[in-house]
Amino acid sequence: MTCSCTSGSKGVSMDTVTGDVIASLGAEGATAAAHALSLPAEAYGNDAQLEVMWAMKAYNHAEVYFNLISAVDPKFLKLTKSDDQIYIKFREQFPDLSIQVLDPELLKSAEAKETWRPFCNQFDGIVEDFNYGTLLRIDCQKDYTEENTIFATRIQFYAIEIARNREGYNEVIHNAGSKANQQKKDKS
């Protein structure tokens, strides 16, 4: 199965997969799944169905965020009640990290994980679900695609996306979204 996050891409649409999986669960199953997703990761082994649910939740989060920065000027977005603190701590810890196009090794290598761990853990109890898995765009000027997406913790996502919003890197996405919306209005 491939992740198809934009229309016109080849592969199976995550919307289709999400709908099929949720429909197969039924009302009781969906309620149980929602409860299961709220439990800590240590409560589970490797459960394929749970991994699919986590992937769906991460995809939905990414889709909502991308639609948001497409519609609203990112400079004015507030992603959490702690945006200022996250941004300040992020730029103190990672002053030279290039956020326009991320180097996945600077987030995923063993050395990077040791550097990120104290940064992430300081938000335990401050940012809800700070260590949940989230999808993050590598190149902020592009949409979520299989090639342009990595898995990161929620606090890494917030830190990088808050910085991208404040430093103007997500303007390209917003401008493209505004242009597309204007073209739709002009046609109608």
From TrEMBL:
Residues of the Polysaccharide biosynthesis domain: 50-174
Highest taxon listed in the record's lineage: Eukaryota
InterPro entries (UniProt xref): PBDC1-like_dom_sf, PBDC1_metazoa/fungi, Polysacc_synth_dom
GO cellular component, one term: cytoplasm
Record's protein name: Protein PBDC1
Originating species: Triplophysa rosa (Cave loach)
